[in-house]
Amino acid sequence: AEQLQVSQYITWLGEINQEQALKEYQNCDAFVLPSLYESMGIVYIEALACGKPIIATKCGGPESTVTPFNGLLIEKENVTKLASALHYMIENRDKYDSNQIRQDFLARYSAGAVVPQLMALYKQVLEKHPGIS
């Protein structure tokens, strides 16, 4: 950051607890994680729960979470695309509706959405394998 002369714009937090993380999500304009490898990525879902748009890389997990209305997906290791995505997010912040992002989170990831899916899956498995209890 110092070498690029942007250290005045960056705060390095290090490891933080859940309460601190929630405050940071609430205080940010967008969640940005240009990861090289990512599975499900709970941090993306946490950002959506707070109604924040996301900038993420196409690296495995984010593709199933980030949609055109809740964020931007870019190619990994492409600094130019990352810079463009950051600029776009700043210039078009009003295109990302926090309430809509939060509602999408609830529809896809809340207990009310996930539990019925799990119950249906368990039921299906038990029906196919009646000896399992």
UniProtKB/TrEMBL annotation:
Keyword terms of this UniProt record: Transferase
GO biological process, one term: lipopolysaccharide biosynthetic process
InterPro entries referenced in this protein's UniProt entry, alphabetically: Glyco_trans_1
One Pfam family cited in the UniProt record for this chain: Glycos_transf_1
GO terms for MF: glycosyltransferase activity
Record domain Glycosyl transferase family: where: 1-97
Keyword 4Fe-4S annotated: no
PANTHER family from the UniProt entry: GLYCOSYLTRANSFERASE WBBK-RELATED
Protein's name according to its UniProt entry: Glycosyltransferase family 4 protein
Organism: Pontibacter qinzhouensis
